[in-house]
Each structure stands twice: as C-alpha cells, then as structure tokens.
Amino acid sequence: MSHSVTITRTTTTTSGSAILINTGYLKTFPGLLKLAQLILGAVVVGILAYYIKRYNYFGTISSGEIYYFTVAVAFLIGTFCLLLSCLISLSTGGIISKTIYELIYHTIAFLMYLIGAIVFLVEVVNKTSSYSTIYDWHLAAAIIGLIVACLYLFSAFLAQRSYRGI
Fold first, then answer.
1. What is the H or E stretch that residue 33 is in?
2. Which of 54, 71, 110, 163 can bridge 152 by disulfide, Cβ–Cβ 3.0-4.6 Å?
C-alpha cells in the first residue's frame, strides 16, 4: 500500500507594533447590537450620573436609582469589553458567539436591565412631579433602559441560535 502526502508551507511575517482592528465585525448584526447597547447604555449612565451628582446633597437618591445605575455601569463595562475584544481580534467575534458565555451574559443583562428599568420607571412615575426637568430626564433614562433590555434579549436570542449551531 502506498499513498502520497503533500506538504504545504506557509510563511507569515508580522510586525509587533501593528494593531489590526476588525471593522468588519461592526458590519455584522451582533456587532451592531453590541454597539447600540454600548451607546444607549452610556446615555443611561450619563443621565443618571449627572442627576445623582447634581441632586446628591438633597438626599433624594432612591435605592431603585442606585440599583439601576449599578446595573447600567456594570453592563456598560461588560459590553465594552466584549465589543473591544471582538474588534481587536480577528477570530474572537466568530469564536465567542459559539460559546455559552454570550448566551449567559446577554440573558442576565436582559433580566437585570429589565428589572432595573421597571423599578426605576415606577419610582419616577410615583415620586417625581411631572413639572420638573428631572422627571423628563429620569423618564427618558428608564425608557432607554427598556430599549436596551430589548436589545439584550435579541442578543441572547442570537447567541442561543449561534450556540446551538442554527
């Protein structure tokens, strides 16, 4: 029995100082979802941080607002890390979406954002006068939070499909 074997050599030369950015990931639907989650999450954090800093001396910060702010900051950082890792590595975007990590991350983000936004929305509607500027901004932050929760739900759905290989 004889058989033939073909050996192919590939030589790759790289320089250590070049950082490649995988901009193609931002053209994919999961990449756009992460970017939208990041931008809207930053808007929520910005609104809440501004009013927490501005009205902190009145002692009017509720536990619901603190919870919502903490959730928004935590998932802003987590989503930034996910998006950054997919942008600076050519293979991460394709690999990480096939793991259970993204499914768990996006599911937990959806649940915590949903709970935080609903609790904060109820507090805003019940405790704030609709004649003040803070009411409008807090209402906007709560509604944006519900939108972000929906984006995380959709990301969890896509991650589940990718994890299952569908």
1. helix 29-55
2. 110
